[in-house]
Amino acid sequence: MPDAPPPAGSDGGGGTLGVVLLNLGGPDSPDAVEPFLRNLFGDPDVIKLGWARPLQPVFARLVARRRAPYSRDAYAQIGGRSPIAEESAQQAAGVAAELGQRGIAARPYCAMACWHPFSEEAIAAMRTDGVRRAVAVPLFPHDSDTTTGSSFKALDRAARGSGIEIARVRHYPDAEGYLAALCDRVREAAAALPEAERDTAPVLFSAHGLPESYIRDGDPYLDEIRTTVAAATRRLGLGARAQICFQSRLGRAKWLSPYTEDVLDAIAGAGHRSVLVCPVAFTGEHIETLQEIDILYRERALARGITHFARARTVGCHPAFLAALADLAAAAARAQGFV
Question: Residue 42 is part of which domain span?
């Protein structure tokens, strides 16, 4: 994983703050798809089997083997691999550079939940670099046991006995820079619609789904998604044009709804010919945006009579988003007395 050099004046080691961005990860080749899925389905915070949890490794192997051909085909449609590791590394480098401009010497690292670089690799890299204090920043704006919670557990396990102290950023659904970047991406996408329909087209904020049972058990994800969408709707003046919907469901359990494909069907049936989809819970491009939205949902919308389908890019390396992450990292580091 490429590291940016420490800012001028840094000692390059113990006085440098490690900035660890947490993300899901994605397969970097067709051969990596099945083991990636095995890691995903084997995480008890992501797939909660309840009384059957002791069987999770067996379940993960079976499901990964069954789904791997479909998933390899999906990744083949976007070049055969996920771009998430490279983009996450660019985001980490951008946050470290932003901190450096503020006088905080920082080095960037990434820790992925389901594929390389794993938390163990991030901790090993920090030890090699002599970094003794770090702040972990999730690339998930919305707190959930399935993403942020699972990632923190993995990082804590990897850091145990390493001598590295870690501060945390938990969530940021209404952080100023995140909202500014999100709204900019919506405006950019709207510019691709016919001028006469830019102010009337429905705007679908599509979030990754979760089983409803997780929310009933206290997962804060849904409330945080609503916080983001309400704030973005106000900033953009969307009113009733804005809708929350959910994608990427698995299995037979009842997941958060309405489902994105059903909302697309409904707005086409209501006579709309333009739509804008904003992937609200995703901060970087990967399979859910590049294949599920850009290919599957676009094809579905066009087949049902929608003629103009615009998709907002993820916030990615938008300067406002990187600045927001730097704000959060600096605040967490200061709270722990690291800087």
Answer: 30-76
